[in-house]
Design brief:
This protein is of the alpha/beta class. The chain has 3 domains: about 80 residues, Ribosomal Protein S5, domain 2 (2-Layer Sandwich); about 240 residues, Alpha-Beta Barrel (TIM Barrel), CATH 3.20.20; about 70 residues, no CATH class. The protein contains 14 helices and 14 strands. Strands 5-6-7-8-9-10-11-12 form an 8-stranded parallel beta barrel, surrounded by 5 helices.
C-alpha cells in the first residue's frame, strides 16, 4: 500500500487544528514526524494518541507526519481517522469517551432566540463558542465547508458532538442537501445531536426523507432520545410550500428562512429594510404559527453594524419571529436584548395573567381587564411573554457568569 491519506488544515492563521499525513508501510513500526510549538509539553501525549488511533485500525507500520497548531485530542483523533479512511475501508469508529453533559435532551418548545453557525471543519471557531451563550450551536456541514473538505468535516463534527463543551447550548447540525445530507446523518444521529437543520427545503418530502433516515439510525443504534428538525426555506418554491413543510412531521420544532439564497432565487438584492423579503417572511411566520411551531428568521450578514442588526431584530420580532441566526458571537447579545420583552410588555402580560388567575379562582368563565374582555389566546400570549422575560433573565445571569469566568482566566 503506497497511498497517503491527509486531513486537517495547516499554514499561517491556523489555530487549534492539525494537519496529518498517514502513509502505511510494510515494516518498521509507526514512525511519527511531529512539528508543534508545544512539542516539549504535549509531544508524548500526541504520540500516544496517534499510535492508539493507528493500532485501533490495525495499522502497525506507517509513516505519519503531523503539523500541529494546538489541536485538542478530539480534533487530532478526527483528523487521523479521516486520513486513515482514505487508505483503508473500515466500519470501525475511533471514539473518545463522550462528555456526560453532551447526552442531555432538549424540548420541542425550548426557546431558540439565537443560533450560532460554526463551520464544521474549523475547530478554532468551535472551542469557546458556547461561552457566548447562544441558545444553539450549529456545527455546519453545508455552506460553511468547502466541497473538498466535506468528508473529513464529518469526523470533526461527530467528535465535537461528543467532546466539545457546549455550555448548555442546544447541539445542532446543519446537514447537506439531498443524498449527501442523508449520509451526514450517520455521523451525527448516534452521538446525541439535539436538532438537525435541513437546508433548502422546497417540499414536505425533503423533510420526510431526513426524518425517516434519522429514525432508522436511532433504531439501529438502539437510541430513543428526541431529535428535532428545523427545515430552512430558501427559495420561492419553498415559500409557497411553507405550511406543508412545517407540518411534514411532528418532530419539526421550528422552521427557518434563509434570505441570502431566497433573494438570489428571486433575482433581487437583499436590503436591511427587508421589503423584498416581507412576503416570504410573513408566509413562514404564518405557516409556523398555523403548524404550532417556532418561526425563525434568517441571519444578518453585516457583523460590523450592531445598530442595523438591532433594527433588523426589532422588525423580525414585529413580524412574529421567535429568533434568528447568528454568524458571529458579538451578534448574540444584540439578538437576545432586542427579542426580549420590554418593561411595558411585561407589565401588560402580568396584569393579564393576574386577571386570568383571579377569574379562575372566582369560577368565572369570562376574564376581563378593565373594560376589555380577555380571550384564551391573549392569556396564552401573556404567559409566553412572562416565560420569555424569565428566560432572558437567565441568559443575562449566564452571560455575566461566563464573562467573569473569562476575565478571571485572563
Amino acid at each position: 500500500m503506497d497511498k497517503t491519506g491527509t486531513a486537517g488544515n495547516k499554514g499561517p492563521g491556523i489555530r487549534s487544528d492539525v494537519w496529518v499525513a498517514v502513509s502505511p508501510a510494510q515494516s518498521g513500526g509507526i514512525h511519527i514526524d511531529l512539528k508543534s510549538k508545544v512539542k516539549a509539553l504535549f509531544g508524548r501525549q500526541i504520540h500516544e494518541l496517534t499510535e492508539k488511533v493507528l493500532r485501533f485500525f490495525e495499522i502497525e507500520n506507517a509513516q505519519v507526519v503531523i503539523e500541529d497548531a494546538g489541536a485538542v485530542d478530539f480534533v487530532l483523533a478526527a483528523r487521523l481517522e479521516a486520513a486513515i479512511n482514505q487508505i483503508i475501508q473500515t466500519n470501525k469508529e475511533f471514539l473518545l469517551p463522550q462528555l456526560e453533559e453532551n447526552t442531555t435532551t432538549t424540548k420541542k418548545d425550548d426557546f431558540r432566540f439565537s443560533r450560532l453557525y460554526l463551520p464544521g471543519n474549523s475547530p478554532k471557531l468551535m472551542l469557546n463558542a458556547g461561552v457566548h451563550k447562544p441558545n444553539g450551536l450549529i456545527l455546519d456541514l453545508e455552506d460553511a465547508v468547502a466541497l473538498s473538505k466535506k468528508t473529513e468535516a464529518r469526523f470533526l463534527v461527530r467528535n465535537a458532538l461528543r467532546n466539545l463543551r457546549f455550555y448548555g447550548a442546544e447541539r445542532m447540525v446543519r446537514i447537506n442537501q439531498g443524498e449527501h445530507g442523508l449520509e451526514d446523518l450517520e455521523f451525527v444521529i448516534p452521538h446525541f445531536v439535539n436538532m438537525i437543520l435541513i437546508p433548502k427545503c422546497e417540499e414536505a418530502g425533503d423533510v420526510q426523507r431526513v426524518v425517516e433516515r434519522t429514525k432508522q439510525f436511532l433504531q439501529q443504534h438502539k437510541m430513543n432520545h428526541p431529535v428535532w428538525f428545523m427545515p430552512i426555506i430558501e427559495s420561492a418554491k419553498g415559500v409557497m410550500n411553507a405550511y406543508t413543510i412545517a407540518t411534514a412531521d411532528p418532530q419539526i420544532a421550528s422552521v427557518a428562512i434563509g434570505l441570502e439564497d431566497y433573494t438570489a432565487d428571486l433575482g433581487t438584492r437583499r436590503t436591511n429594510e427587508g421589503t423584498e423579503s416581507f412576503f416570504a417572511r410573513s408566509m413562514v411566520v404564518n405557516a409556523a404559527r398555523a403548524a404550532g411551531i417556532q418561526p425563525i428568521d434568517s441571519v444578518f450578514s453585516d457583523v460590523s453594524d450592531m445598530e442595523a442588526l438591532a433594527e433588523n431584530v426589532k422588525r423580525s420580532k414585529a413580524l412574529g419571529f421567535d429568533g434568528m441566526g447568528c454568524i458571529h458571537p458579538r451578534q448574540i447579545s444584540v439578538v437576545h436584548e432586542n427579542f426580549a420583552p420590554d418593561a411595558a410588555e411585561i407589565d401588560k402580560a402580568k396584569n393579564i395573567f393576574l386577571a386570568f388567575r383571579e377569574a379562575e379562582n372566582k369560577g368565572l368563565g369570562v376574564v376581563s381587564l378593565g373594560s376589555k374582555m380577555i380571550d384564551p389566546p391573549v392569556v396564552k400570549r401573556a404567559i409566553t411573554t412572562i416565560e420569555l422575560a424569565v428566560e432572558m433573565k437567565k441568559l443575562d445571569k449566564n452571560w455575566d457568569s461566563s464573562e467573569k469566568s473569562t476575565n478571571n482566566q485572563n
